[in-house]
Specification:
Chain A contains 13 helices and three strands; from the N terminus they run H-H-E-H-E-E-H-H-H-H-H-H-H-H-H-H. Chain A has about 350 residues and is mainly alpha-helical. In chain A, helix 6 packs parallel to helix 11. The relative contact order of chain A is 0.11. Chain B is flat, with a radius of gyration of 25 Å. By secondary structure, chain B is mainly α. Classes of the chains: A mainly alpha (about 350), B mainly alpha (about 290).
Chain lengths: ~350, ~290
């Protein structure tokens, strides 16, 4: 009885100490994360202007509807009144449709064109009240999916090579840390120079020698090259991180399993499919979600290399806040990004699982 | 083909792949070094040259002018100093605060531990851009200038990460150590200070390095908070907004020299501590 009492007292003391030790961390997190998050949430319902003394007005969900307002309208074909047939562009041979500007609604808000597409022989236009934001979300998603996919494939390849023993393996593992250690802004600048739009840029020279392009590809200004270029930079910078995670996963697979498989006559391909992949899956899943969360937040590369010509969600948020001083709208973008990340983060934590003991 | 031929071919293919990967990883950095040693005229040569060559004689002729210019640039030198201050202060603060919390999470028994761990873990994934306007309001509300403002706000990503890495190290220390100390009459805090903290020195180095690199790297907050205070700009902001001497023409030679200057110390640091860093990066990624 006495002993139990003493140990529960000890436990109580331990508990008090624990709360005391946790306090500073949680105070900091409240000041730099939770309180600002609350502020942003409240501001997102107002028309507050950045760095201005003007009193903000409450505007309800206005910022959100402005950002997310989208509509799809059918574009009627342009009919030649003489023949009753659809007019065809004499140069390209493409059939012509009504201009989206005349179809998209203007009241109560003006919708502008984001994209056109054909579906079952009919032509449609996607309009949005803030086409830049819709494009930013789309570009960020495309960027995330493609770069994470490429990083995983390349990272796995590098991890497999480094995992086999050969002379110079240590050197290679050291080299893997170089792109990771380069400041993101610096790597963006390095690639910006390599991607220069004439033959002063090394990528243009290499492309030309390989018979691609005329040596004057404007990688960072031609819309069709912008995303691939950005993805290339990000893949270079973060593949090593992916490879390191996967390498760590490979190294905990017991060697006896391969030994046994070899005795049973399984070749390297079979070993990879039946042993390596299934055992690497948990690590890979964690690495994937971790990278996905990072890619969704991408800012530095977009901001440095594309500035105001094309946005990621984060760089559009920054532009609205600093460039446009629309603090209310920027806050609403922030909340939308937060919700995106939150969904993925829950997934991540579920996969990782927290061990308390 | 004979057995040994197959082996040889496999060997050759393997080394080609290794060579290719090495080239891929290191080429952009090589290119920055190469470009930093070129003069303005050499940079504008078409097609570009793989080593700095004289435009007329085509002989190897590097120049250190860009490095001289970079070290004479106030903005860059100040940037280095600001970055060093901000990154060191952030690192020390997060280690000091984080090690207490990690000790509690890794070794003490208390109610609500699981939720505390969940909160810390979820904070590592916090989208910093979301709170940008709110954080700006907090910094100006507290009357902080840009440098203390950055130090405080960088804790949002260094602190949860530090706690996470240190907790996993504390957890691995044998419980018997603590029990033995307690039998000898040491309080929990004494046990922490005298026995556990010295043992976790390697973990502190790991977490500290990663925090330092993350803070050294940060761009978004730095860009925002120094917008009205250009003298407080850190290295990433200085390099992103490198002043052009000739209008509309970016001084890429100097930018590349600056890139090389800021990358080499970090690369050296990373190579010295590579095992620690890899262990820290992969902490928590592998179950079991």
């Amino acid at each position: 009885m006495l002993k139990k009492n003493a140990s529960s007292k000890l436990l109580q003391r331990e508990q008090r100490l624990a709360y005391f030790l946790l306090l500073p961390t949680f105070v900091v997190l409240v000041v730099v994360a939770l309180y600002p998050l609350g502020l942003v949430f409240v501001t997102s319902f107002t028309d507050r202007t950045f760095a201005s003394p003007r009193e903000p007005n409450y505007v309800g969900l206005n910022n959100y509807t402005q950002l997310l307002g989208m509509t799809i309208r059918e574009l009627p074909p342009l009919i030649d009144e003489a023949t009753g047939l659809q007019i065809v562009d004499p140069k390209t041979g493409e059939p012509l449709y009504e201009r989206p500007l005349r179809i998209l609604p203007r009241e109560p808000r003006r919708y502008r064109e984001v994209a056109q597409f054909s579906f079952f022989g009919k032509r449609y236009v996607l309009g949005a009240t803030d086409p830049d934001f819709v494009k930013a979300v789309w570009d960020t998603l495309v960027f995330t999916v493609i770069s994470v996919l490429l990083e995983t494939i390349l990272g796995l390849g590098i991890a497999l090579v480094v995992n086999s023993s050969f002379k110079g393996r240590g050197l290679m593992r050291a080299a893997m840390l170089v792109p990771w250690a380069v400041i993101t802004v610096v790597s963006a600048r390095m690639w910006q120079w390599m991607l220069a739009p004439t033959r002063v840029g090394v990528i243009n020279v290499i492309f030309q020698r390989l018979g691609l392009g005329d040596g004057n590809i404007a990688f960072l200004t031609q819309p069709e090259w912008q995303l691939p270029s950005i993805i290339m930079v990000d893949v270079w910078k973060t593949t090593p991180f992916m490879a390191l995670l996967l390498l760590a996963g490979l190294q905990v697979i017991p060697g006896e399993l391969y030994e046994a498989a070899r005795v049973d006559g399984a070749g390297p391909v079979r070993q990879f499919i039946s042993i390596t992949m299934p055992l690497l899956m948990p690590t890979m899943a964690v690495a994937l979600v971790f990278r996905t969360l990072d890619a969704l937040r991408v800012f530095d590369v977009f901001q440095v290399m594309l500035a105001q010509s094309r946005y990621s969600m984060a760089s559009y948020n920054y532009y609205q806040l600093i460039g446009n001083r629309a603090m209310g709208k920027a806050s609403a973008i922030g909340v939308i990004i937060f919700i995106f990340i939150f969904i993925f983060a829950v997934l991540y934590i579920r996969m990782l699982g927290v061990e308390t003991d | 083909m004979s057995q040994s031929m197959v082996k040889l071919v496999n060997r050759v293919i393997f080394w080609i792949i290794v060579g290719f990967i090495m080239l891929y990883l290191l080429f952009p950095f090589y290119w920055a070094v190469n470009s930093s040693l070129k003069s303005e005229n050499q940079l504008m040569m078409t097609p570009t040259t793989f080593i700095p060559r004289d435009p007329v004689t085509k002989e190897f002729s590097p120049t250190l002018d860009n490095y001289r210019a970079v070290f004479q640039s106030d903005q860059f030198v100040r940037g280095l100093r600001n970055s060093a201050i901000v990154a060191s202060a952030t690192t020390l603060l997060s280690l000091a605060i984080g090690s207490f919390t990690a000790f509690a999470l890794g070794k003490l028994r208390f109610r609500g531990k699981a939720s505390a761990l969940y909160i810390v873990l979820s904070m590592t994934m916090f989208p910093q851009v979301t709170i940008l306007p709110g954080l700006y309001a907090v910094i100006t509300g507290l009357g902080l200038t840009a440098i203390p403002g950055m130090i405080l706000s960088y804790l949002i990503f260094t602190l949860p990460f530090t706690v996470w890495v240190l907790t996993s190290f504390f957890r691995e220390l044998p419980m018997e150590l603590m029990q033995a100390a307690q039998v000898d009459g040491a309080t929990s805090l004494q046990t922490f200070r005298l026995i556990l903290l010295p043992l976790t020195a390697p973990a502190l180095v790991t977490a500290g390095l990663l925090a330092f690199i993350a803070a050294w790297n940060e761009y978004l907050f730095a860009l925002t908070f120094t917008a009205i205070e250009p003298t407080s700009r850190t290295v990433p902001v200085a390099i992103a907004l490198f002043p052009a001497l000739v209008a509309r023409q970016e001084p890429f030679g100097e930018i590349m020299a600056a890139a090389v200057v800021v990358t080499i110390p970090i690369v050296v640091l990373v190579l010295i501590f590579q095992r620690r860093i890899i262990a820290g990066l992969t902490a928590g990624a592998i179950k079991g």
